[in-house]
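The methods section describes the discrete structure representation at length, but only in general terms. An entry of this sort, consisting of the sequence and the corresponding backbone structure tokens, reads as follows.
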Amino acid sequence: MRSLLLGHGGREAIIAEKMASKFSLFSIMPYKNPTICKYVKESGGKYFIGSPFDKTLIKKILKEENIQLCIVNNDDLLEAGIIDLAREMNINTFGPTREGAKIEWSKDYGLNLINEIVPEIANKTYIAFTKNELNNIIKEFQGCDFVVKPNGLTAGKGVKVGGEHFKIREDGINYAKSCLEKDGMVILQEKIEGYEFTIMGFTDGNNIITAPATYDYPYRFNDDLGPGTGGMGCFSCKDGLLPFLTESDYLVCKLAMEKVLHRINKKEVIFNGVLNGGFFKTKNGIRFMEFNARLGDPEALNILSIMDTNFADVVYDIAVNKYIDDTRCKFKDINSYVLYIVTQ
């Protein structure tokens, strides 16, 4: 099968490795990712240097290269509606439409779904649309015990946590004001004390198979010092849980993801691919953080490395057969860890 992969980061590199083991792989990149180029060449496909947002270019390649499957795993590309473009050309797709991906590119949408469907795991949340609303909301918090979230995509770097990213209350307020001015709204939440983790689910739009839970380290330097990044490393455990996570905790998260998926796809399947749930384990149980509409980074490297089923087969089942179950998506009973080494 001739498949087009859009995106050029670390997540796409491991996707390229898995897909090239069975299919001819094509790629559009703004610059050469050597790993992706390697697997494209080995698969007998082609890569093109250009903007993966260029819909004219994408249409041209989809048509001229007789592409049968389009894979999009990048948040910005999903928001841009690249999956919609491929679907309009009757090409099989792995990834949600723009409307399906709204659960990531509009944080208030995802939060409202949780508040409506599974309020028991919702965190105290306020949304301000004006400076007066923001001034009134900020009075609900003491000191720096609040979190500021822009509404749109920020590549994992836009959320600011009191006591970690800002030590002075006024700095947090000023950041909230800047988000409000930029986006026309800003989200403030009660600061959660606990362990943050993620669970990724592979879905055909109706069924969802959840992977082992992962724990990542988002800060740049040793001892969790330095600025927040998209993720500097990650681990998973062979039992599918984490040292602080119980089976009942995991089930709470899985059920929440299933309910949200079914609500999104209530009328038709606009979300397939990967639903990535971010949660906290607190002394009061599970609390929801956010959803992503694609594989996480660096968590994708863990999960695809311990997947016992060939990921290319999982993609094919979801995109072409439109059916997945736990016999067709299995994981090895082994521990995993990923460490990113970068220059300072």
Notes: The chain has a mean pLDDT of 93. Residues 84 and 97 are 5 Å apart (CA to CA). The first helix runs from residue 10 to 20.
